[in-house]
Predict the structure.
Amino acid sequence: MVAAAPPTTDRYRVVASPIGDLVLTGDGRALTRCLMTGPDLAPIELGGLAPDDGSLDEAAGQLGEYFAGERRSFDLALSPAGTEFQRRVWAQLRAIPYGTTSTYGEVARAIGATNGFRAVGLANGRNPIAIVVPCHRVIGADGSLTGYAGGVDRKRFLLDLEAGGLPFP
């Protein structure tokens, strides 16, 4: 007889950051969302989620290290909900090196969707695990900071942080 996997309960945790509070959610095994909050963003529904029991400590800690300039990549189990195409885009976003950017067209070509830059833009905007899956590193073909669900100011902050341009402790 094979023992069933223990049931998981989706949990949430609010983490302070220099770009506003982040809401982390997880299923006990993986990070499922990292969402930005603020008066300029849609409210986040937490119905049905229990407060974190410590299962999100590692994600919170790694995000703290990132904002302190001590972490350049994340080593976390991730489980974003999305279509197969979206998950392919999000996997490619994780391949964009820290401190660099890529265009929507470059991401599309990298996943074999040569003319799919608009579809990449839509998938990028639906990324449920901001920062960890670095959608902020994707820019317009002309170098403009376009299409960031957290807002252009937050995108600029994250890119400046990664470029070493912020005097953040």
Residues 99 and 162 are 5 Å apart (CA to CA). The chain has five helices and six strands.
